[in-house]
Design a protein that fits this description.
Elements (H helix, E strand, L loop, with lengths): L22 E6 L2 E2 L14 E3 L8 H7 L10 H8 L5 E5 L9 E7 L5 E2 L2 E6 L4 E10 L7 E10 L4 E9 L5 E10 L4 E8 L4 E10 L5 E10 L4 E10 L5 E10 L4 E10 L7 E10 L5 E10 L5 E9 L3 H9 L4 H17 L5 H16 L2
Parallel strand pairs: 1-5, 4-7, 5-8, 6-9, 7-9, 8-10, 9-11, 10-12, 11-13, 12-14, 13-15, 14-16, 15-17, 16-18, 17-19, 18-20
Antiparallel strand pairs: 1-2, 3-4
Length: 368
């Protein structure tokens, strides 16, 4: 495992800051970096590192930590829990509304180590907030392993927007588990963007535990070279009147390989569920590969469920149309590719982060 070895200064991470996020918790190789973190007065009792919560919030931690992610059947989540020491903990109190996003920044600096980032986000009744979970590397060719676990629990009427960005080194291995539990009439919105790592796997499990909960999740994987990006999601409707919407997109170039497996379960008691899922995928080269598998498992009869999947290349007629307007073929291809990915990125309500991601997508489209 990575050892705490952080001599980073604030100026070293200036380019990673998000101006909209006044509050940030920074972890370097999985270890908390207080000198790089900023928590303003109003959030000082709300967000912090796990050891600061021990003693005063033991009952809260015992009822949530490792209770949402299944460690019995998931070896990587169990391993992360075994190495648990530092963790980002955010508890949004009852009826608390936070306008600015909180930035959880996980920075990799060491080669040939494994780090175990951990996050616990709790939305108490009626709370509203946005949390950004951001994985970055300061060395673009470093080989290392990130094994992360995030647990999110929403009480009744809580609303959390979760933005997850994975832009690790192109030689890294990124293994991640995110487990979400939704209370009555709660609302969870998530946007996950995968750009980095040689091999990445993201498991997201959402459990609709109470009536009338709603989730809206979207994802974008944009990879090239010989990258493998594997996304597995499961939305489990265990109670009636739940709503879930999911849209996932993959843009795959060179000899890269993207996988999307999206499962929706509707349990026998989850009548009046309304669920839709879309998987749209773009192949930019002959050797690129995409495996998509939308799954519906419905055990209730009064439901509305739909899913669809497409895999294709850029539309020749659209390319021709743009060429007729004066663009070269390459420019036309780049513009169409950018627009395909931008639909997901535009869902992110943080302008500076949206701009950074648009630049990353633009850079990748223009490199071909």
């Amino acid at each position: 495992a990575a050892t705490p070895k952080c001599d980073l200064q604030v100026k070293d991470i200036e380019h990673l800051k998000l101006k909209e996020a006044e509050n940030r918790l920074v972890f370097v190789d999985g270890h908390f970096a207080p000198q790089l973190s900023i928590i303003t007065g109003s959030l000082s009792h709300i967000a912090g590192n796990l050891p600061a919560y021990l003693g005063s919030r033991d009952a809260l931690l015992q009822s949530h930590l490792s209770k949402h992610v299944g460690i019995d059947s998931n070896v990587f989540a169990a391993l992360n829990t075994a190495f648990l020491r530092d963790a980002a903990v955010i508890v949004f109190p009852k009826e608390f509304v936070l306008k600015q996003p909180v930035h959880l920044l996980f920075i990799a600096t060491q080669s040939e180590v494994t780090s175990y980032p951990r996050s616990l986000i709790i939305g108490e009744p009626g709370s509203q907030a946005t949390v950004i979970e951001d994985y970055v590397s300061l060395q673009q060719s470093a080989a290392y392993i990130t094994n992360s676990v995030t647990e999110i629990s929403l009480a009744e009427h809580a609303r959390i927007q979760h933005i997850r960005v994975q832009r690790e080194s192109n030689q890294a291995f990124h293994l991640a588990n995110c487990a979400v539990s939704l209370g009555q009439a709660s609302h969870f919105q998530s946007t996950a963007v995968t750009l980095g790592a040689q091999i990445s796997r993201y498991n997201m499990n959402i459990h609709i535990m109470n009536k009338a909960a709603e989730c809206d999740i979207s994802g974008l994987s944009m990879i090239s070279g010989r990258q493998l990006a594997d996304t597995h999601t499961c939305i489990d409707h265990a109670q009636p009147h739940g709503i879930s919407q999911q849209q996932h997109k993959c843009i795959v170039d060179d000899a890269a390989h993207a996988v999307f497996n999206g499962k929706i379960i509707v349990r026998p008691h989850a009548q009046r569920t309304n669920s839709s899922q879309s998987s749209r995928n773009l192949l930019l080269s002959k050797s690129a590969q995409i495996d998509t598998k939308p799954q519906l498992e419905i055990f209730a009869d009064d439901v509305k469920c739909a899913h669809g999947a497409t895999v294709g290349q850029l539309d020749a007629e659209e390319i021709f149309y743009l060429q007729s307007r004066g663009l070269s073929e390459t420019e036309a291809r780049n513009l169409l590719t950018f627009a395909f990915g931008a639909e997901i990125i535009n869902r992110i309500p943080v302008p500076s982060l949206k701009q950074q991601l648009e630049q990353a997508v633009l850079k990748q489209t223009q490199s071909h």
